[in-house]
Predict the structure.
Amino acid sequence: MSSITYHTNVPTLTWTDDGITLPEPDAILNGFIQDVQNAFPDAVLYDSNGKFLLSTPWGQLITSWAAVVLDKNNQIAFYANQVDPSYAMGRMQDGIGRIYFIERRPATYTEVVGVCRGGISVLIPKGTYVADSANNKYRAKQDYTIGDDGTVNVTFICETKGAIECPANSLSMYEIITGWDSVSNPKAGVVGRNLESQQQFEQRRRQSVAGNSVNSVDSIMSALLTLTDANGNPVCQDVYVTENNLSEGITNGSVFLKPHSIYICVAALDSQENEQFIAKTIWNKKPPGCAMTGDKVVTIEDDSGLYSTAPTYKITYSYAVSVPIFFQIVMARSQDQPKNAADQIKNAVYNAFTGEDGSIRPRIGSRILASDFFRPVLAIGNWARVISIQIARDGMYSNSISMGIDEIPTLTKDNITVIFNG
């Protein structure tokens, strides 16, 4: 029995050291045309002018076959690229993350510390509601008891996930408890976020590669960025770590680093629960015996169980100062722009700044370029014609601003000004 060799003129995928190469769509189509002509010499595929007869039954079949092959080639190429961390997304990106022992961060809730005042020993139960000026509701994280000074710091968690702003001095009582007189929040809340995007996850994966090491600034930063509380929620919104390895003090912006010291700045809720998580993480990763610079001092115990009387240590770090950022956006007026054009522009800039659209949000110590926000505004629609975008932190608008190593930028939609010219 003789063997039969089958042959097709349709080009195949090519695998090289540079990756996968796909044949061009025209080459796939022409390959099918040649196959049909070889199998059915009498098939009429072209008109008298040499134009391919797409509307004929053969034309429809050939173009459908070519479309199927092209689609499958694209799917294979897409899947092959999912092993590259720079392109992976979804389930494949989650798998790469697990190699580094990190999970995608879920959507989180805004948290804020409220100073509750009232009678001594009055209980504020877990789940007690307060509200902010925008009528967003927050629940007490656990049971709290008002102390001898008539106050207690209560961590309240927003009941809605996502980037819910809670400005300073915006909380008020929502329900009545006998002996509880008032609540206020001297500091703004730590804003929650949506499910971690592909870009945000990849940035954190790159930062986490030092997570298994110790005695370096990278290992401290990585450990704090992946730190979660007892409920699995991220503790630190952002982290900045640097060191001074000289025998004399140095100044970095407004921060003075003592000789041979490390400086750690975290963007996190300043609560008693969080400070122990943060301090113990730093202690587990920092070099022994080094000095520490900062304005927050937390005492921790060595809970390793190696000592009959556990030694205590003082860990020093700083909380990032929130710096309000302002935008001034000048647009060319368009005849077909919608009535809510200004609101759409504000939403686009705000979502890009906070990372809600998948962008990488500005961080502690970062330089922020106004030009980075052209893309989200232009993506709104053809009517969005940008004349200029400028950014400021102190009333002086420019093309860029810089944050100190003890500062984290914050933005509210009220701080975005949209001007239409023409």
Observations:
- The chain has four domains: 14-81, 109-184, 211-319, 323-421.
